[in-house]
Amino acid sequence: MLNILIIGNGQCGNRILDAINREAFGTKGRFAKYLSQQKYKSNVQTIAINTAVNDLKEMKFTKAKDRIHTPHLHGVGANRNVGKHVFEDNKTLIMKNIHDRGDFDVAFVITSASGGTGSSFTPMLIRELKEKCDYPIYALVVLPFREEGTLYLQNAAFCLKDLRESGADGIILADNQFLKQMGGNVESAYNGINDMIAKRLLFLLDALDSEMMMVTDLGDFKTVMSGGAGLATIGFYEAEAEMPIKSVIKNALSPEGMLFSTDAYQEASRSMIILKGDRKYMSIDEVSSEVEQLSSCVGQVFKGIIVRNDELPQVLTVLTLESAMELENLYAIAVEAINYERQKKERVDSMKEVDRAFSQINGMDPSY
Ligand code: GDP
């Protein structure tokens, strides 16, 4: 049995963590968090951390003892410098909470890259954990809608850079912009995206801790994640009716199945393909031919099969990326955003002229 730690930082991280707890505990209503047992084999511990108490209160499926409030007004207002100070002030409290839960085999830290709290806490927390613990730690990072504004873009660019330097064992990307085809208003898009991420992560945990027909384990996952440029993403497809397993695999590898826009055959460096479902769908010839096709493009592909009687096939793919065109695009617009903010600050600084004008009447009083 694996001991797994999942931490959600900031609003986005908290909400995705809550979606994971909802999936893991089952939807038995508001009291699920007090009553039910996790349906997963692993010992999964979850912690939500936030500066904004309202974001923590909003959680429905995460136990109160699993929520850490690091108070700072109503959040840090998308300011990563403030966020870093608040983390430093609360580091002892956070680390003690994690330490008291014992040892783990693997940890995931979930955050948006672009807000204030999660994007500043996550790299610092991972750095702290890597200094004290020897289990692998993966960041699961949500990228912003590109039209959300210059501060968010700037934060995303710096957060990812900080994460790469934090000692994290890998960064799994999910992209709001790419996933917004979920449709509906922002709230329902968020919920849809959060559910997608939760489902994929729980499938992965299930696979790492399963008695499989063909085995993939935490060791294989670590090897996959250590390939490429330290970046990864996850694809998934669930057959809604009977369909050949090769089509399910193709769909799980297609850009539409991914959490981040990528061409698996062009950009992946290593991969893991996990199939779940009734044995009758698992044609070994079809599976082998799909795996061979992918491995001829990307090199190493690990495969695992979890047999679940009477279940339609589902496929999860983990890909580490050698290159990421979409990330280069994001950085190109982030650079524009950083320049824009810098120029604006310079303009505001030069407005000190205005202060000079005001200062001319310092010490004077009006006479009537
Ligand atoms: P923080 O609380 O200061 O860490 O900031 P947030 O987590 O709210 O970060 C803002 C970014 O997260 C923006 O890019 C939002 O689009 C995104 N975001 C906020 N809430 C959610 C959510 O529930 N799901 C998803 N997918 N993205 C979210």
TrEMBL record:
One of its GO terms (cellular component) is cell division site. Residues 3-212 form the Tubulin/FtsZ GTPase domain. Its main location: cytoplasm. One of its GO terms (biological process) is cell division. Pfam families: Tubulin (PF00091). SUPFAM superfamilies: Tubulin nucleotide-binding domain-like. Signal peptide: none annotated. The keyword Transcription does not apply. It is found in: Cytoplasm. One of its GO terms (molecular function) is GTP binding. It comes from the Archaea. GTP binds at residues 11-15, 116-118, 148, 176, 194. Keywords: Cell cycle, Cell division, Cell shape, Cytoplasm, GTP-binding, Nucleotide-binding. Belongs to the CetZ family. HAMAP family: CetZ (MF_01946). Involved in cell shape control. This is Tubulin-like protein CetZ. It comes from Methanolobus chelungpuianus. The gene is cetZ.
